[in-house]
Every structure is written in C-alpha cells, then in structure tokens.
Amino acid sequence: MSSVKKQLIVFDFDWSMADQDTDRWIFEVLAPDLRRKMKTLKDEVQWTDLVAQSLREANKRGVKREEIQNALRIMPFHPAMARGVDKLKTQDDRTTFLCLSNSNSVFISTILEDKMLTHIFSEIITNPADWEGELLKLRRRIDPAGPQHSCEVGCSPNMCKGEELEAFLSRNGQEYDRIVYVGDGSNDFCPILRMREQDLVLCRSHRGLSSRIAKEGAAKGLKPKIQYWAGAWEVEEIFATL
Ligand SMILES: [Mg+2]
Ligand SMILES: [Zn+2]
C-alpha cells in the first residue's frame, strides 16, 4: 500500500499492546483479596473509581510503590509486539502512534519505560495518575464534577474513546490516509464507528470488541475493514505489510 503517505496507528493498551490487563494484574500479584473485591463491586462502582479505591486500600496495608512498579514490569508483554511497533515507528516517518487507554498514565509509562518503548507514542490519552509517596493517586480522565461526555454508544463515564479520537484528529489538523486501530475491548467499539472505509481495525479475537462488531457492527454502519488476530506475533506480521 505505497499510496499511504501518512498513517495513524491507534492503540488500546490492556490486552492490545500489552498481553494482560494492568488494573487487574497488579492486584492479582499484590493483593488477590482486593482483586476479588473488585470483581464483586464492578457493577456497583465505576471502574476507575474502583481501581483508585483499591489502590488506597493496598497503600493502607503497606503495599509499596516499588512493588507496584515491579508487578507492572513482570506483566506479560509479547516481544513480537515490542518488535513490531518499534520497527514501524523507526523505519520511516509515515506513522504516528496514539494510545487510547482506560488504564492510567503511571501504569502505561512504567511498562513502556521497562520495554524501552517510550519513543513510540506521540500522545497517551488515559486516566491521570501520580505518585504521592507510596500511594498511586488515580483520577478519571473526565472529572465527575465537571461536564460529562455525550456518547451514546455505551462508553464508561470516565472516558469516551470515540470523542477522544475525534478531538485528537481535529487538534492535530493532520490528514491521515489511513487510520489503523488495534483493540480488544467493548469500549473500543465507539472509536471504530467513527472510522472510514480506507481505515483498518486490528481486532483481537474472542473478546468484547469482536462480539460488539458481530452484534452491532452492521446495524451501526461500521465502515473500516476488520482483521482479526489472536497473538501479538500476528500484529507484527500485519504491521510489516502496512
Ligand atoms: Mg483493552
Ligand atoms: Zn463513546
């Protein structure tokens, strides 16, 4: 596809770039009872708030910053994914990478630093987090006290990835010949509804996004081409053809 002069690769993070879910993983490693509690409460408490609350509980019982950082560094991350994105980013200047994630800024940057991938993303749009001593303070991307997003596709109150993608495109004023979206979750459905026929979705098989595409894609007029993948080595293979 040599006609593509500028392309944007949009990456979800959990189960897309990384081979696990950051929010769940750190509690599975450091406090499995809190992981169980999150599973019990997830339909009652908004997810970002629930992770923030669980981080406070972990901090109260003495879980250290270093332990959280180490848990993130040992989280599964496929070497083929690291190779694939690095090659596409560094081989020429056609490709811009954007991260759209429901995780948080500290989890993502800790992992990217460990994998020597901090040069990949032009922008990381996610929930903001900061260390306050040993406590990781996490907030929603959209402050619950301020104006809320107007999405009707079913995005969580903390962030609408579709609106974030559109805002990124208009603030960059850049025309992309092709947008490629790599995602797995049901909240990746909203942004792909806003993509065009010449765009491409790399959808991880057997997860929330693939079921939403199957159930709602045709009725909602989904336009981009969909290509399914299961392992990161397949994304590396596809990236080599872009
Ligand atoms: Mg995901
Ligand atoms: Zn949305």
Overall spatial form: globular
Give the CATH H-level superfamily: HAD superfamily/HAD-like
Record field, number of beta strands:
8
Pick out the low-confidence regions. none
How much is the radius of gyration in Å? 18 Å
Number of helices: 11
**Main beta sheet strand tally, sense and closure:** 6 strands, parallel
Topology-level CATH name: Rossmann fold
Relative strand content: 15-25%
Active site: 12 (nucleophile), 14 (proton donor)
Keywords: Hydrolase, Magnesium, Metal-binding
Protein name: Phosphatase phospho-type
GO molecular function, one term: phosphatase activity
What distinguishing features does this structure have?
binds zinc ion, 242 residues, binds magnesium ion, 11 helices, single chain, two-stranded antiparallel ribbon
Please give a structural write-up.
Keywords: Hydrolase, Magnesium, Metal-binding. This is Phosphatase phospho-type. The active site is at 12 (nucleophile), 14 (proton donor). The protein is an alpha/beta fold and 242 residues long. It has helices at 13-17, 22-30, 32-41, 47-60, 65-73, 79-91, 105-114, 161-172, 189-193, 208-216, 232-239; strands at residues 7-11, 95-104, 121-127, 129-132, 135-138, 178-183, 200-204, 225-229. The chain has 11 helices and 8 strands. The strands form 2 sheets. Strands 3-2-1-6-7-8 form a 6-stranded parallel β-sheet, sandwiched between helices. α10 links the parallel β7 and β8 (225-229). α2 crosses α5 (65-73), α3 (32-41) packs antiparallel against α4 and α6 packs parallel to α11 (232-239). The chain is globular, with a radius of gyration of 18 Å. The mean pLDDT is 96. The structure holds magnesium ion and zinc ion (ZN). Zinc ion (ZN) binds at residues 151, 153, 155, 160, 162, 190.
